[in-house]
Design goal:
This protein has 264 residues and is α/β, with parallel strands linked by helices. It is built from 9 helices and 11 strands. The longest helix has 19 residues. The chain is globular.
Length: 264
């Protein structure tokens, strides 16, 4: 049974209240186009777009923006050669591209968070799902052990740690994406009696500095930064699994680019 882009996208937000302002929209493509295949991704890089075309998919669902800013400030890039080439590729390919960010974070529980918890096999340890964080009670583990577990389960080569690596931790808070900043992360330590916070990213002068002072004062606090993409890509893979189950007649693929940063 055929399904249009509009019908598929409507299903993604069917049970959610409308937002007055959002970055979520169809940036390329037509709502009336019949969907032949879907690619989900954390970021619609040029590599991901080319892979979608090679896979025969004509709809990309991306969590982050296409043109290097949250609010897609394309006017500043009109003459930039990287923008021009990528924009030309999209237009020539005929692929539709939908940004699925704000609404996915408003799933209950948060769709991106749910994907990360599934990737880590930590669903059973969740004590509380807050709007922007998950609070877990893990079996006692050293910070180093947690870090090695994260790297192994998420297939990433490194994480960044603030605090004492040998510290034993049990109560853990998880914040995906750019929620590792002080206003989001720091209150959780006290309010939820946390030993460790695992976050995507945030300003280095906020939560990491808090942890530095906490440790200096003799308090057992630690922070693990995964990276923005590393914390959110599992959520888009989880979305692909959900779409595949919901639309078995459609080829659905999760496509992940190579990590941006290399450790030298």
């Amino acid at each position: 049974m055929a399904i249009t882009t509009g019908e598929l996208l409507k299903g993604l937000t069917a049970n959610l209240d409308s937002l007055n302002t959002t970055v979520d929209k169809l940036y390329f493509g037509n709502l009336n186009t019949e969907v032949k295949g879907v690619v989900t991704t954390f970021s619609a890089s040029q590599y991901v777009i080319e892979r979608a075309v090679a896979l025969g998919a004509n709809l990309i669902i991306t969590h982050e923006g296409l043109f290097f800013s949250h609010h897609e400030l394309q006017d500043e890039l009109k003459k930039d050669p990287v923008y021009v080439e990528k924009n030309r590729l999209i237009e020539n390919s005929g692929v539709g591209i939908y940004r699925f960010h704000d609404y996915l974070h408003r799933y209950k529980p948060d769709g991106i968070m749910e994907g990360l918890l599934h990737a880590l096999d930590w669903q059973e340890y969740v004590e509380e799902q807050q709007p922007a964080a998950a609070i877990l009670k893990l079996p006692p583990m050293e910070v180093t052990e947690v870090a090695e577990y994260l790297k192994r389960k998420l297939h990433i080569s490194y994480v960044r740690v603030a605090g004492e690596p040998s510290m034993l931790c049990r109560r853990v808070g998880i914040l995906v994406g750019y929620r590792g900043g002080g206003s989001s992360a720091i209150p959780l330590f006290e309010n939820s009696s946390l030993d460790l916070i695992i976050a995507g990213e945030g300003p280095e002068w906020e939560t990491p500095e808090y942890v530095r002072d906490a440790v200096y004062q003799g308090r057992n606090k630690a922070l693990i930064m995964l990276g923005h993409a590393e914390s959110e890509a599992p959520g888009m893979k989880y979305l692909a699994d959900q779409l595949s189950a919901q639309y078995p007649m459609l080829p659905v693929h999760f496509v992940e680019d190579q990590p941006i940063f290399k450790i030298l």
